[in-house]
Amino acid sequence: MKILVNGEEKTLLSPLSLQKYLEELGISSQRVVVEYNGKILPKEQWGNTLLSEGDTVEIVHFVGGG
User: What sign does the dihedral 64-20-14-36 (CA atoms) show?
Assistant: First the structure.
């Protein structure tokens, strides 16, 4: 199945929840916001959101500084 992540096409071999996908990428939920199919998705919904063919995901990392 193909999805679009931050403008790049990615292939998933099996259905995954958004939470599991982020974990496989090594992305901590503490420092990101996820836009799923054009809408900001609350972290509470990541585990229940299954990625499907054609989904669009934007992962935005927070960067600290001073």
Answer: negative
Provide the 8-state DSSP code for 36.
E
Instruction: Please give the chain's pLDDT, 66 residues, in tens.
Output: 999 999 999 999 998 999 999 999 998 888 899 999 999 999 999 999 999 999 999 999 877 665
* Tokens at 58, concatenated: 């934007």
pTM of the entire structure?
Answer: 0.87
* Region of residue 31 (left: phi > 0; alpha: psi -120 to 50; beta: else): alpha
CATH of domain 2-61: 3.10.20.30
- Give 21's strand partners: none
